[in-house]
Each structure stands twice: as C-alpha cells, then as structure tokens.
Structures
1.
Amino acid sequence: MIPKNTICLWYDGAALDAARFYAETFPDSTVGAIHRAPGDYPAGRQGDVLMVEFSVVGIPCIGLNGGPGVRHSEAFSFQVSTADQAETDRLWNAIVGNGGEESACGWCRDRWGVSWQITPRVLMEAVTDPDPAVARRAFEAMMQMRKIDVAAIEAARRG
C-alpha cells in the first residue's frame, strides 16, 4: 500500500547505502523496494538505483538518487526521541562515527548531509516544564552542548 505522505530525500547516488545505514541504526526502520532507472537520466544510467523505499523510525521515505544538484540543510531534520543516555550515545555515535559531523544542541548530520536531532525525552520534558525557571535552566544547559548530556539536563532541571 502506498502511503498518502512520504518524505523524499535527495541523494547523489547513495540512497541505498543511506537507507541500509538507517535500517541498521534506528529501531522500526526498514529498507523496502529498490527501483532502477528505466532509462538514462542526467545523474545516471538505465539500470542504476533510482529510488529506494525505506522507513526511518516508522516514517515512510523515498531516497531519490537525483545527482549532485541538491544539498540537504537543517531546514529538514529527523528528530529521534531517546529514552536515556545509552540510547542517545548509541545513535549519536553511529551517525557521527560513520562519517557524520556534530552540531549544537543535540543536532548532528550524517555523511549524506541529512540532519538529525538526537533528543532525550528528559530534555523535551525539561525545556517545556511549566515552571519557567526550570525550563530556562534546562534550555541554557542545552545551549552549551553538542550531544545532549542527560545527567547535566537533569541537574539543571533540579537547579
């Protein structure tokens, strides 16, 4: 069954590699159908992998090998909620350690340029706390981080 809404991510020939990495790294992620180009196109030849159907944490996606013309930006990111520091570390390290790069406040970018927010639940609870002082302390702590440190967020929350 074709989903009504699917995220389409543009790659420069690496859609299948990216989909496989996501399926190996994130729970509830799979690689589905692989579609080959029925003819030559500007970024490839007949028979090359043109599109890959996959899911990331249950979200249906298509990877399109459209060529080098379009780059990813932070304007789109996957936000993945994590249960604890161990899960945060595992996902962060998988992305950054596989040719990705760190950014600020729990953001990182994979080697294909897709942005990710690896976000412990405790962080979201803290920065949305009904007590403005708690939310501010947690927010200020987060602003100093790259990968989120759960213990530091919990300490900031407590004051």
2.
Amino acid sequence: MRIAFILDNIILGQEPLGVTTMGAILKKHGHTVDYFDIPRDRAHWSTDAVAKFQPDVVGYSISTGLHNRYMAYNRLLKSKHPNYHTIVGGPHPSYFPDFLKTDTIDFLCVGEGEWPMLELVEALEHGKSPYEVAGLHVKMPDGSIRANPPRAYEQNLDALPFPDHSFILKFPHLRDSPIAYLMAGRGCPYNCTFCFNHVAIDLQAGRYTRYRSPENVIEECLELRDRFGKRYMAFQDDTFSLNFRYLEKLLPIYKEQVGLPYLAHLRADNLTERMADLLAETHCKRAVIGLENGTFDIRHKILDKKITNEEFIRCAELLHDRGIELVTQNMFGVPGETVETALSTIELNIQCKTDIMVLHFFQPYPGTDLARMSSEMGLWEGTVDDIPESNHWFVVLNLRDKEVIDLVGKLSYFLLDYPKVFGYLKPLIAHPVTRKIALPLLKLCRVVDQKTLYSKSRGVGCRWHPPKAVMAAPEATSTGAARMMDSDLCTVA
C-alpha cells in the first residue's frame, strides 16, 4: 500500500514525531510512505505531487485551528483524485470524533495512532474488513458512523520503531539544521486546565505517562548524530524533569556515548539542585519551563498550576548559575486576565532574567477545562471553527481591555529586551486614568519592535536566537544555524 501524509507549513517547523513514527511502522511492514506539505498561501496549493505518488491512503494529523485548512485541501485533492481512503488523527479528531461527519473523511483515529494505522492499512491491502479496527471511528457504506472501542496505550515504547527520520531529507530547512527532535517518553501527569493532557489521559486505557529504556533513547540519539549529522538534541517530552531516577540512568550514558548539547522541558517546582547539577554536567544548554502567567492567583485558580513566583525565580537561578539558558512559555489572554496580570507576566520574566520568551495567546480548545470555563464566564461564544490557525496571533477571548492586553502580549519580547522601557511604561499602562496616554506609546513601541526584532542591538529576549552551544559547533552549517531560528520556535512551543 502507498500512504501519503499531508502536513501544513506551520507543523513543519520541526519533524512531526507522531506522523514519522507511523511512517516508520508502515515502512517496516513493507508499505511505501511519503510526506507532502501544504503551502501557507492557498493560491499556491497543488495536488500534482500527491497525485503523482498515487496513494491508496491519505492521512492528516490535525490540531484544532488547522482542521478547516486540512479539509479544504482534502476536498481539492478528492475532487481531482477521488480513489483513495482518507484517515484523520491527532488532537482535534481525538476530542471531536464527530469530525468524521465531515465530507471526504473515511476513518478517524482516537488517541495514539501507530497500531490502528498499521492495522487499517494491512486490512485494506489484504481485502479484509477495516471496520472493526480498535481505536478507529469508521464511516460505513450506508453513511452511518461506527465507533470502535479505544485501544489501550502502548506500555512498551521500545516496541515502537524510531521515527522515520529520513523525513527530514525531503525538507532542506530540517535537513540542514543541526537540531534533532526526539522524545524519551510520552505523557504528563499534571492537570493544567489549558492543556490536552488532562483530557488525553482518559482517552485510552493503561498508564499514560511512560518511558523508553535509556538504551533505546541512546540508540536513537546515535542514529541522529551519526547518520543525519545532528549536533544538538531537543527532547520534546512534556516534562523531562518528571522522574529524577530515570534521568540518573539516562543522562550519564548520554554524556558518555552521545556527548552533544541538548534542550529539555522542565517544571519549575520539581527542579532541585541535584537535578540541575546533573543536567549541567551532561550538557543541557537550554531549558524550557511553562511560566504561563505572572500572577499566582491566575495560575492557581484558573490554570491549576500551583507554582509560586519564588519557585520560578529559584528555578531560573539554578539554571543560570550552571550556564543553562532559560526559555519560558507564556500565555496571554486567559480567563481572568487583566492589564495588570498581563504586565505581571513580563515583570516575572524580567525577574527570572529569561533568555527567550515564547509568546502564546490562549485559545479555548474545546474539551479542555479552561475552554469550558471561558464559555461559563461569557468570554467565548464562538465555535471550534472560529479558533485561529496559530496561537501566536492575537487575544481571542472577549476580555475587558482586550486591545491593551493584546498589545502588551505582542510587546512582551520588546519589553523583556528593554526592562527600563517597561519600568517607565508599566505605571502608565496599569492605571486606568493614564492608560489612554500609554496606548499611543505602546503602538510606537510596536513599530520599533518590528523594525529592530532581529537587530544585534536587541537584548537577550530577542526571538529565536539559536543555542550558543550550536552556534559554536564547527559542524553547524551557516544555513542550518539560520534556519534554526525558525525551527527553534516549534522546539519550545
């Protein structure tokens, strides 16, 4: 069988590990797989490359916001080449299996898709019924929907092949970048209200948070280093610091056998001095933490993330004292957000001496607790189809002072780079009486921000500078380093 996976430019900032793991399994069982991208501009859409490949199955991994875009492309593809099966998976279909009712879709996968995808393709190839595959919702010949029971989470992650890293050879910006993407495990036990994890944990039976063996992880690192020439490992685990005992087994072997700098996603309230020492000793050069909002009440009561400001600052000190760059995830426009809380997010980043801020605007992804809260508070009356394609664009909720909050969020990089400017503007923005005076100043700063964004004169918070460890490596090509400014966006997003 021939399987085509369709990907959007937004997803292609890095290697999509879910799709490429499915690709690896399919290839291992003798099937032919290829990957195709959809240009950002719909005027440049073409079906020629996919048609030339002659797929039997076309697959899409879809996040909310991109669902309409993918299905618009699939309609175009089906209108010209109707003789293939369409399957969709990923977060959006998993939370909204009714999405199968969309025209041109034949199968929908709920949860992890490696084994359901393989079983479906094998059934189609051998002329067997594909209608009873566990984990799939199926559109029957009479148009009715058959919802098969979910498949349990795969507990032995070593049973899965490495992702099909040959994927990157098709896309020059990934091929030439020194950065590699991988995961040591899957899942996260925390219940942050804005995140998909508290929903995903109940989608399938079995333990949700799982780890690969250290030996298996090291083998993949060596493949990425020796076969694909990668010089920097970006671990994409939701919380790499979750299990210290596991890291005590993995990281010394990593240092001895791989020896490359790496990035890890941490949680501020479980980073200890011992763990920070271990990370530094084994060449961790950049750490990502979810700061989210600078006001504890918002984090505690709205986001269900009970980390104090003091814990964030201590985490930052532990990292900086050991030469590890700090990247923070920040979210503006959440329920309960005010001008003051938006300003507090920038202020906490200044106190943490953040090296890079990552800006997100909250989106009410249906199915999450925070989306339900947004509707109950009367802040969101839209449907899933009203959610923007990117959460980097603008404030979505109907908040009081929405325009100012949106502008403060968009200026967060600039104000981190220039804390003195923030110090002058903060009292003007925070006070309702002087806010009208501050608004034109904010708009002026926005103009300066756009003109100087990548200037060498900008401070440490300037967007997407590659890790110093990579820039210093002789193996890092100039093209790869330049492209990494874009790919690193997805690394920490």
3.
Amino acid sequence: MSKPSLPQGTRDFGPEVVRKRNYIISTIKAVFELYGFEPLETPAMENLDTLMGKYGEEGDKLIFKILNNGLSDPKNIEKATRAFEHILQGKNDKDLTERALKYDLTIPFARYVAMNYGQLTFPFKRYQVQPVWRADRPQKGRYREFYQCDADVVGSNSLLNEVELANIYTTAFKKLGIEVEIKINNRKILAALAEQCGGADKMTDITIAIDKLDKIGMEKVEAELAERGLDAEQIRTIRAYLEISGSNETKLAAVKMLFVNSTIGVKGIEELEFILQYQQSLDVDHLLSIDLTLARGLNYYTGTIFEVKAKNVQMGSIGGGGRYDDLTGLFGVPDVPGVGISFGVDRIYDVLEELKLFPKEVQKGARVLFFNLGQAESRKAFELMQQLRGNGIACELYHEQAKFDKQFKYAERKGIAFAVMVGSRELETGTCNVKNLTTGAQQSVRFDQLGDLKFEMFVV
C-alpha cells in the first residue's frame, strides 16, 4: 500500500493552524459586518461557460476543469475520446467537461446577482469567505486551493464605495497588527495609455505584460510587448509611463501632462484624486500609494484598482480588487456597476506567522481538565464539568482512569491551564482540588462553589 499523500498545492490544517485561520477570518468578517456587508456563499463548482473568458488569457489557463460524470459508459468514453482530442488542440468540449472549480469569488458573485437581480435590494453589499482553486505552480504564498475573503458592492456608481473599501483594508489590517501599503491605480489611465499605443485593442496586451513587471523586470516586459505586436515607439511610450515616480501628487501631475487630451485618462485621474482627498480628511492617506505600474491583469476591471502589500516581509500581495462596472452584463443583466476587494487569507496567515503577530489567546482551547480517578469519582467530575460548561468554561474529562503523571502530561501537551481532581476523599467532603498548572498553586473548593471560580483569574 502506497504512503498517503496530498495533491500538490493543497494542505491539511491541524487544530493550531485552524484556530489561527479562524482568528484571521473572524477579524475580517467583523470588519465587513461593521461596514454593513451581508454574507453569501456559492457552490464550489460552476458551469464552465460561467468562468471561461472572464479572467483573461492567463487566468483561463489556470481554471481547474472537472470531467463529466458517467464516463464509464462505453458510448460516453467514445465521446470523451473525441473531446479529448479537441482539448489537446486548445478547445473546450462539453462531451468531456462542462463544469469547473471556481477560480475566484467575483465571477460567481456576478452570476448570483444576475440570477437574483429582481429580489435584491441595491446597492447590494455582500461579503464571502470560501475556498477557490487555481491550477497554478505551487510556491511560497501560492497554493492551488486557498481561501478568499471578498467584499463587493453592486448597483452603485458612487466613488464613496472605493473610499469605504480602502477603509475596510485599513481597519482590518490594523486589527490584525499588519503594517501595509495600499496601492491604487485606475484602469481608465491604462486605457488612455493603450490609446496612445495604437488603440483600445492594445489594452489587454499591455496590461498582461506590465502586470508582470515586479516578477520579470522592465527588459522582459518590453520583450513581451514586442512579441505581442507593439512597435518600438509604442514600447518607449509605455516605458516612459512606467518610469513615472515620486509622491502621489507628483505622479498625478505627470499623468495629467501625459494624458491631457484623453477624456478617459482625465476621468481616471479625477477618480484617484477623489479617493485621496477623502482619505486625507480621515488622516489615513499615508497608507494609500498611487502605483502606475499596477494593472491587475483581469479583463473585467474598469476603474480604480487596489493591491495590498505587507511591509517588513517578503510576500506577494495580500489583498486586491477594483471596479468592474458591467460584470453582470456577461450574464445578460447589463449596466450594473460594481466594485470589490479581496483578502488573501493564506498569505495573511504566512505574514502573521513570520512576524509573530498571532495573539497568544488564539490557541485558547479547553481551559480545565478533570482528572479521572475512578468510576464514582469520574461520574461526579462529569457532573461538575457540565456545570462549568454551562458557565462558558471549556473543559474536558480525561477519557480513562490513569496515573496522575499521565494525566498531567496530557494537560501539558494540550496547553490546558487548570486541573480539577475529585478523589474518594473529596467525594466524602464535597470538595475538589483545583490546581493552576502554570503557577503550581492549588486550593480546595466546595462542589457548590466551583462554578463561581474565575479560572482565567485564579491565582493563589
């Protein structure tokens, strides 16, 4: 029998890790609720045509497709064989696969809004915390199965939504103790760049290439742009744009000069200025940084885009998002504006772990261990344990009668802070011995007073 293993890019999560992940998720959820967002869940799989063509050329390659069920039927096998030949030619075929694991939470959300448009109250503000899957190459901070925490607003053109989402990032990461830089740009500015480089049809080629700038550097970006058909003059224009640097004000002034005759470029600049001016009144503008190289290589973004990087740690983005003014139009419901952000739970976990920012109380499990010292004694211990549980104190009874040393070691391994011992003598006197396993202090407590004991504060 082969040794058990996991699919590459996936992980098991033990109790310690799950508690830490729950801390991250519950912190972010609390901020979402604070800002008036409502919870939503969608299925793990979607119809393939729901997902394909929504993430750009690079994203579509990373969609996990699911084989159709019923392939054991010989007739289906023949169809699947022919379909597989189409797949090898880079085509999709419903005889082989009709469904796929969801790549992100945004497209399924857009599908949900389109299907339930008549029943929703707009603007509709939802948050969603679920796993997604990507057929990516696993590496540090990048997995094939991972969780996303999204917050989106649909049905509103107001830039106040962008301001609120930026504040959600600020609030959540402050609560988590992570120092971050929130980078922003606007796809309308990138559209203006595409105009200067031959037209709107160049937009996808340009954004896909410059989205890789941090990973591959300027020279390779220029080489990719050339491969995508841009000429030397167009590439020089893009390079000049990407080399704009300085403060937010300096960058805005430079792009104003560059796109002074572009209606869409001026509009994008005005949107960035609105967000920055709002943030200045809240004294958090220092967290927002205009990054003109930020492209967010997904085709559906149309306005302001976000990316969050953690300071003091080598890690990719831990959050991102942007405006997508006609995403539901992909599903037959046009003209529904939207904007959203996402938190990368797995990368946030890695950052908190590396910087040692998890609070100690995150690992709070059972607080009290009742020793098992015999049949009659354990029955009484079980009765007392239920009283403590009724008071909200987490506790457990050792599963069998055993030597003191074995039960003490069990408590130590599980990080249990207190031991309660009820022996034959204690049954006669109606008392129990309570020991603080951290300090070694011990006291005798009457059965009817045990429920009043504040174990979190018990020090003798």
